[in-house]
Design goal:
By secondary structure, the chain is mostly helical. It has 11 helices and no strands.
């Protein structure tokens, strides 16, 4: 029991660090829950519950960066809550095999968007300057993209941070620390509302989830302060390497057999 506690707590800590800095902490925490015997659907819901602590503590640690974008936050939170409800409901209604096969492709799209997001955004801005109705279309597409990100996060938490960062890159955000703060706020809102559904349906493994949660709480808060002191170049490079690793991992797990 003590060894299992230490294993899950360590997984939560390192998962919280990864979620706070770049996203993808579920690469550690979700397999850890499976390893100790939690059933896949329950492990997925429990992982969302446990990861939420790291999201919340990281959001608080980056509150100064969030304050600079305070006018945009109510809209982002509302869309996150709606998407989280839809995604959580879909998870409870969808066979496990279906969402498992979709995960690597969603992560691949997210990785490409993050790496080339700035270039795509510049091209979109050029389109806006030459087309009368492009600004309206652009805002609508960004709304749909954020909603899709949040639905995905409620459906399956792994990779939510990477996809959220991709959305923020396309939306024109450039400061990686501010992007991390908003990413964590989105993740917090999505996870909290999805957890309500999971609790109601009784699919959370409370002991295992609480141990991982405690580790994620500490890891997320520590990492948020560390990431703020790093140069944007190194943080962005780290995000890129993590997203590529997560994508490769899920492709191997899904299609190796």
């Amino acid at each position: 029991m003590l060894l299992e506690f230490a294993f899950l707590f360590s997984a939560g800590f390192f998962g919280g660090v990864l979620n706070s800095v770049a996203g993808g902490g579920s690469f550690i925490t979700f397999p850890a829950l499976l390893f100790v015997g939690v059933a896949p659907i329950s492990a997925n819901a429990t992982n969302t519950f446990a990861s939420c602590a790291g999201y919340l503590s990281g959001t608080y640690a980056l509150r100064d960066e969030l304050f600079l974008h305070r006018k945009e936050l109510p809209k982002i939170i509302l869309i996150s809550l709606v998407g989280g409800v839809l995604g959580g409901w879909l998870l409870l209604k969808t066979p496990e095999s279906v969402f498992r096969e979709a995960i690597p492709w969603l992560l691949l799209i997210a990785t490409v968007l993050f790496i080339f997001g700035a270039k795509i955004n510049r091209q979109l801005k050029q389109l806006v300057s030459h087309h009368r109705y492009a600004p309206v279309l652009g805002h609508f597409l960004l709304f749909l993209m954020l909603l899709g990100v949040c639905v995905y996060g409620g459906f399956f938490n792994a990779g939510l941070g990477v996809i959220a960062l991709s959305y923020l890159a396309l939306a024109g955000y450039e400061n990686i620390n501010a992007m991390n703060g908003i990413k964590l706020l989105i993740s917090s809102a999505v996870s909290l509302i999805a957890i309500v559904l999971f609790v109601y349906n009784g699919v959370i493994a409370w002991y295992e989830g609480t141990v991982v949660l405690l580790g994620a709480l500490l890891g997320g808060y520590v990492a948020a302060h560390v990431s703020r002191r790093l140069s944007q170049h190194y943080v962005r490079a780290f995000v890129t390497s993590v997203s590529c690793s997560i994508t490769a991992y899920f492709f191997i797990v899904t299609y190796a057999n």
